[in-house]
Automatic annotation (TrEMBL):
The keyword Disulfide bond does not apply. Homodimer. The lineage of its organism: Bacteria, Pseudomonadati, Pseudomonadota, Alphaproteobacteria, Hyphomicrobiales. Its cofactor is FMN. Residues 3-197 form the Flavodoxin-like fold domain. This is FMN dependent NADH:quinone oxidoreductase.
Amino acid sequence: MTQLLHVDSSVLGPNSVSRQVSAAVVARLREVTPGLVVTYRDVATTPLSHLSGAHVAIAHGAPVEDPAVKADVAAGQAVLEEFLRADIVVIGAPMYNFSIPSQLKAWIDRILVPGKTFKYGPQGPEGLAGAKRVIVAVSRGGSYGQAPMTALEHLETYLRGVFGFIGITAPEFIAADGIMAGPEQRAQALANALQTAGDLAA
């Protein structure tokens, strides 16, 4: 059976464009992928802690003494295992202040793990997660296709870099842009993104 991991990160709940598009992506993949098994994680409503000195020490072999840190390390391990199991990863990623939500960054910090999703060899870093398909539903308040705004686009560029580092060199992006430009632009951007999601191939 094909395993799909669906991650949402918008803080806007049902008003979120990225959530609507990521849900449409998953619905489409359910249609075209027999036996699809979906795991859902909402990092906005159930956020992970940001990395701390304790996390770094534990990664280098220090004992886990604080019960809260121990629980958080276990949560991080669960996140990593979800990601490793997944054949397909669908992410809802709104742009906040030119980049990804901090909650999504905390999730990424738990899946970029040496020896699990990448390793360093004689030729430098090598990604270990290249067999996965990643689809990212992006929502952005403005449009970033032309200068000077292109210099402020740190969402898609960052995620392409992150996934490329772990071996996923062709992530797919479905973007709803300019959603803060007015209700008509928002509606059109959402409709276009939903159409693209509905046309996805298996």
